[in-house]
Design a protein that fits this description.
26% of the residues lie in helices and 25% in strands. The protein contains six helices and 19 strands. Strands 4-3-2-8-19 form a five-stranded parallel beta sheet, covered by helices on one side. It has a five-stranded parallel beta sheet with strand order 10-17-11-12-13, covered by helices on one side.
Length: 299
């Protein structure tokens, strides 16, 4: 049957730990299972988190783990290999956990364009979120590497931090309206496919077949791939992200989801809030179920 818990949290980032903290404080038996592959691991600091601005993301996770453990929550460094109805959560180590409720906070991963230099400098001076990193590269020479229509929107945002913003068309064909938008903000449009990022100790330039443009940082809008577990059968949207209501409840009774596995735009602060909201909903649902059973037994 496995180790019996009230809630198993799959994923130990901000959303999962925030939810686990609330559930542990509600005196529930909670286990957090985390595979140790956070999306923001390459980033030296996180920003926009009130009272924690500039903190290394690893420090936030470490503090969160300590807080969950202090209230009796269990933290397991392992990977979930399978979830069976009921719910039976099987881990790579062979351990089996059973629980009537799950909180899925498995996040997402970034699928990067295969331009040499992008993956090597990802999270350092190859960036995605201007709200996370724009201030740190303000007034510098910035590039936006286009791979989808989202890059145009990204460039318009990045321009707010630096007048020296260049848009590299790469494999994306701009419409006339998009060209007009970029031109209205004096964003330089660089034609041609990008061959590589010139990297020394940091990114120094973007090289195309016909040009080499000096830059201090490059923004890229990757393809977001949700880290959903197979076999759960959750309803997803057209991009593959879990569909959940405002409290994190999914299409599968007993399963809640929060953070980037639901919302690709959720920064750390937003993910933490979503995890807490889901935990409240889970606790209320468990209490309602226990109350119904108690009434039945008393009649």
């Amino acid at each position: 049957m496995g180790d019996v818990r009230d809630v198993v949290v799959i994923g130990g980032g901000a959303a999962g730990l925030s939810g686990a903290l609330l559930l542990a404080r509600a005196r529930l038996r909670v286990t957090v299972v985390d595979a140790g592959t956070p999306r923001n691991a390459p980033a030296a600091h996180m920003h926009g988190f009130l009272s924690r601005d500039g903190m290394p993301p690893g420090e936030l996770v470490a503090a969160g783990r300590d807080e969950v453990a202090a209230y009796g929550g269990e933290l397991v460094d392992d990977a979930v290999t399978e979830v069976l109805p009921g719910f039976e959560v099987r881990l790579a180590s062979g351990r089996v956990l059973t629980a009537p409720r799950l909180l899925v906070t498995t996040g997402m991963r970034d699928e990067l364009p295969g331009v040499p230099g992008v993956a090597e400098r990802w999270g350092r001076d190859v960036l995605q979120c201007p709200y996370c990193h724009g201030y740190e590269v303000r007034d510098q020479a910035l590039g936006v590497l286009a791979t989808s229509p989202a890059a145009v929107h990204q460039a318009l945002l990045v321009r707010q931090w630096s007048a020296g913003t260049s848009f590299f068309e790469h494999t994306y064909e701009l419409t006339d309206a998009e060209r007009a938008q970029l031109a209205a903000w004096d964003i330089r449009i660089v034609p041609g496919e990008v061959k590589e990022l010139v990297v020394e100790d940091a990114v120094r330039a973007v090289r195309t077949a016909d040009d080499e443009v000096p830059v201090d940082a490059v923004f890229v809008f990757p393809r977001f791939v949700p880290g959903l577990l197979g076999g759960l059968g959750l309803a997803t949207d057209e991009r593959g992200f879990a569909v959940a209501d405002g409290n994190g409840a999914t299409s599968v009774p007993g399963v809640w989801a929060a953070g980037n596995v639901v919302n690709s735009r959720a920064q750390v602060l937003m993910a933490a809030g979503a995890g807490a909201a889901a935990a409240m909903s889970i606790h209320a649902d468990l209490v309602q179920d226990l109350t119904r059973r108690a009434v039945q037994n008393a009649s």
